[in-house]
């Protein structure tokens, strides 16, 4: 991160979209946030990887449908090669396949292009802090998908999970983001994040999408 003249720590962000008419205004608008610095704009996945390699970069705001290398493949490569860099998907596509592919590739957030500047900025900050943000339409689609295509019985949840961790997993299964979980349980978002990290480690849960599937398969949601 760099610092502004006021001493505010700024997140270094790469904006990726194959349409210049989208990425350039978006980069300009995000740059108005005092804690966000857009360090590069990329037209495809290969340019994203090059920008991250030149780094440092904290978050990539990633379109999915791009030439040369699409956003899902670029996300997978970043997750493998630069796991410290968070990816937030920003796309017009909210179909089941796109959502699940992006989250499985390692995206920490998924927004549609109906999201406003403040929503996008919040998602960038959350992803940089290790949290996941899914907009309401994406949450609803994901929950509908896993409930319609209910998987085979999942492995049992570990016996050493605390009651609070089970509560957190239940609320993740209902599609609640970290902030809403914190409000529901009257705890801080930092505490929610700690519980999530612990339960993911104990239950061998890979990501938030996997957590939703596990919660539903085990009857918690």
TrEMBL record:
Matches recorded under Gene3D superfamilies: 3.40.50.2300
4-aspartylphosphate, modified sites: 63
Coiled coil: none
Residues in Response regulatory domain copies: 12-128
Residues making up the signal peptide according to the UniProt record: none
Domain HTH luxR-type: 154-219
The keyword Phosphoprotein belongs to this UniProt entry's keyword annotation: yes
Entry keywords, A to Z: DNA-binding, Phosphoprotein, Transcription, Transcription regulation
Superkingdom classification of source: Bacteria
Any single Pfam family the record assigns to this protein: GerE
Keyword Transcription regulation on entry: yes
PANTHER family associated with the record: TRANSCRIPTIONAL REGULATORY PROTEIN NARL-RELATED, TWO-COMPONENT RESPONSE REGULATOR
Name of the protein in question: Response regulator transcription factor
């Amino acid at each position: 991160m760099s610092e502004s003249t006021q001493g505010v720590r700024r997140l270094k962000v790469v904006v990726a979209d194959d349409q210049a008419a989208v990425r350039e205004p978006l980069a300009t608008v995000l740059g108005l946030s005092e804690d966000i610095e857009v360090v590069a704009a990329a037209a495809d996945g290969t340019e994203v990887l090059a920008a991250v390699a030149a780094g440092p970069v904290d978050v990539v705001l990633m379109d999915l449908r791009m030439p040369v290398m699409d956003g899902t493949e670029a996300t997978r490569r970043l997750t493998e090669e630069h796991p410290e860099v968070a990816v937030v998907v920003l796309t017009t596509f909210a179909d089941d396949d796109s959502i699940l592919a992006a989250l499985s590739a390692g995206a920490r957030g998924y927004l549609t292009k109906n999201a406003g500047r403040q929503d996008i900025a919040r998602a960038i900050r959350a992803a940089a802090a290790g949290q996941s943000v899914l907009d309401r339409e994406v949450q609803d689609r994901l929950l509908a998908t896993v409930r319609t295509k209910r998987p085979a019985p999942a492995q049992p949840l570990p016996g050493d999970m605390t009651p609070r961790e089970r509560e957190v997993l239940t609320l993740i299964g209902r599609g609640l983001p970290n902030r809403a979980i914190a409000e529901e349980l009257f705890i801080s978002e930092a505490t929610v994040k700690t519980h999530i990290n612990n339960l993911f480690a104990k239950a061998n849960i890979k990501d938030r999408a996997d957590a939703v599937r596990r919660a539903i398969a085990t009857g918690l949601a």
